[in-house]
Automatic annotation (TrEMBL):
Its EC number is 3.5.4.16. Pfam families: GTP_cyclohydroI. Residues 30-199 form the GTP cyclohydrolase I domain. Keywords: Hydrolase, One-carbon metabolism. Pathway: Cofactor biosynthesis; 7,8-dihydroneopterin triphosphate biosynthesis; 7,8-dihydroneopterin triphosphate from GTP: step 1/1. It is an enzyme of class 3 (hydrolase). This is GTP cyclohydrolase 1. InterPro entries: GTP-CH-I_C/QueF (IPR043133), GTP-CH-I_N (IPR043134), GTP_CycHdrlase_I (IPR001474), GTP_CycHdrlase_I_dom (IPR020602). It comes from Streptomyces roseoviridis. Residues 1-19 have a biased composition (Low complexity).
């Protein structure tokens, strides 16, 4: 089962970076949750669990500021399609607080300069480090990259494995969700759009 959502480019929506969390308070709350779930947080195996979970939350929410993206001048380049794929990140579905694996492919048109390739992975990780929905995640990456290159000629495709669909609810382990956010010439030029989608499909690994 696969669903595909194609969203047109939309104005950037400013989001606040995640504030630092009080890990001691979170650990207390996790301990209370264990009690409410019928567990004894003092038993062997659980004594350090609240601290570990709190530390994980702190780490998960750590990327508070968007990474700086480096561009390099390549004056001979005009309209070259650049696609970076194979980026796999974990995030948390905000509806169930259950993990989702997101495979990201991002493309843009290089016009006189290129974006440092490793930065794509940093951007993909940055926007995954918060409670998310795949549709918004896809748009946030596209809008961030459009801001970096100063044009709307960006397309982002994300293929998501949502454990909230696999391990609860309808329990469909094979379900995958595909989202595409395209802007600029990726919307107006159907050949370019098709090129991107073909390359993106080829770069996805099976999961
Ligand atoms: Zn969910």
């Amino acid at each position: 089962m696969t669903s595909t959502t194609v969203t047109p480019a939309a104005p950037a929506v400013p989001r606040q970076p995640a504030p630092g969390i009080n890990t001691g308070r979170v650990a207390d709350l996790i301990g209370q949750l264990l009690v409410e779930l019928g567990e004894d947080p003092r038993r062997e195996g659980l004594t350090e669990t609240p601290k570990r979970v709190a530390a994980w939350w702190s780490d998960f929410l750590a990327p508070a500021s968007a990474p700086a993206v480096t561009s390099f001048t390549e004056s001979h380049l005009a309209g070259q399609l650049v696609v970076v794929g194979g980026m796999s990140v974990w995030s948390l579905c905000e509806h169930h607080m259950i993990p989702m694996n997101l495979q990201v492919t991002a493309g843009y048109l290089a016009e006189g300069e290129v974006v440092g390739l490793s930065k794509f992975g940093r951007v993909a990780r940055h926007f995954a480090g918060r409670l998310q929905v795949q549709e918004r995640y896809t748009r946030e990456i596209a809008e961030h990259l459009a801001g970096v290159i100063g044009r709307e000629d960006v397309a982002v495709a994300v293929r998501g494995l949502h454990l909230c669909m696999s391990m609860r609810g309808v329990r469909m382990e094979e379900a995958r969700t595909t989202t595409v956010h395209a802007g600029g010439r990726f919307v107006t030029d159907p050949v370019l759009s098709q090129q991107f989608l073909t390359v993106a499909a080829g770069q996805r690994r099976v999961c």
